[in-house]
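Section handout 9: paired folding examples.
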Amino acid sequence: MKIKYLTLLLLLSTFIVQAQKKIKWPDHKKAVIVLTYDDALDSQLNTAVPQLDSAGLKATFFLTGDINRVTIPKWRALSKRGFELGNHTIYHPCASSDDNPVASENYTLGAIVREVEIMNNYLFAIDGKPTHTFAYPCTETTVDKGKDYSDSLRKYGLVKYARIGGDVDDGVITDFKHLNLMKIPSYGLEDNTPGEKLIDFVKRVEKSGGMGIFMIHGVGGDYITTSTQAHRELVNYLKKNKKDLWITTFQKAMDYAVAASKAD
């Protein structure tokens, strides 16, 4: 009986170790940071991109139908330089409010799936990429008064990975074996989040050995704004610590993490 008990403890401890086993990131990096920006905002092109360029960092921009003949060439140029363009729908439907005039309650599952598909075609016309990732407008995964459309995205293979929102605790990802690829959490920044708090999140991710995804909107302008200074502090910290941190796009990070978790 004692031997069986010890065997059970050994098996349990082995299972725990395997469950907590950290992914080995490329080039002996300790963790991964992914910078994502929503809504195709002018402040991202005018402020965020130059800061990223100065530090040699790449990021993911989730675009909506607000792109136009002035900005499309700029987004196309970014794609050619290694930045990722992702799908954020055409009309950005959200639960009814003054800030989001297109109401998601009026969408059927078929309508939202079709909109995501059409936006994929727009993105293909811009970047020529066969697959794209997705971010839910307003971080909401439902339409038509509460119907979840994440499984529809999975069923029809419209997007490779989908990002939701979350707070600073949700944004640290370490368990990739059980991660829902259609509901990948991120750290959604609020108005005027200080640079110190952004850097603290990076440090938490590095300590965990996992992945941290930022969800950013305006940078030095527009709305849900991260100040130019706070964004610069974050970018400078990432540049300074590139030896230990892999700063990459959403799809590249997830492709690697999924493959590595299956190999374990």
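Moving on to protein 2 of 2.
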Amino acid sequence: MDRKIISLCHRISRPVCVFLLFLVGVHHLQAQEKFIFTPQWTAQAQFAGYYVAQEKGFYKEAGLNVEIVHPSPTQPAMKRIQNKESHATTLQLCQAIEIVDEGIDLVNILQTSMNNSMVIVSRRGVDPLTQKGERIGIWSAGFGQLAICMNKKEHLDYEWIPFASNVNLFVAGAIDATLAMSYNEYYQLVQTGLPVNEKSVYRFCDHGYNVQEDGLYVTREYYNKHREEAKKFAQASRRGWEWAAAHPDETLDIVMKYVQENHIITNRTLQKLMLEEVLRLQVDRESGKREFRLRPDMVKRASDLMLESKMLKREVTYDQLIAK
């Protein structure tokens, strides 16, 4: 604090001093540069830990003035990052590797996912690996890099049919099977009442494709200039996720607040299932712990698969991605 303010406080009454210190605090808060976080998708329990960190004041306690701005069709998260309108975003590991290969230098400052959530669900009650050459739904917004690798490696010759954000094509019978996240579209399918059994579900994590998904990323340029802010944001975000795991009911209340404020069509049951599954996926299969770290072996696995499928021009390594 400014020594002149401290000296002045010694010479004036206590109430006036308290008010003066309050004004200084307000001015300091207003002077803080905003840290803008944009997750890669619309408001949902997938990002619960960040909402918790905001609502419980963890970011503020870390000295950060954080604003959470969700993406839009015209302003996707990475576009905001490239335009320096946002400072951090979440990305699946395969997405981050692809973006780095394209020349955008990214740094992983926190890893939340320890396991892969992607599945293929067949509408015919058969193993999706038997559906060679058939029509399979894939997200038009991305997220399907690992599935493209698997398709080539297993010689399945799927015909990829893009969909926006829901299971309508699958429900309507326009496609034979669809990609889904085990915490999102999979539960949407279950809620439609369509028969979904394990025989018709291919889980990537069980077949040699257990590649980590969501992590927290900033550009290397931002990290080099604002290392302390990035570290504080990562630490407070981890604290938010740990609180969410310990208080799932209160966390769900917070998630529903963000869902409603952002006018997302969903329901509490779906968000509860999503939260439970996202938290489960954060626990490493081998250690049984919520580790919050990017695993070098999974970076290597993802990069090798994408190189083999000619999705990359060069190998992207763990050392390139990790914050130091």
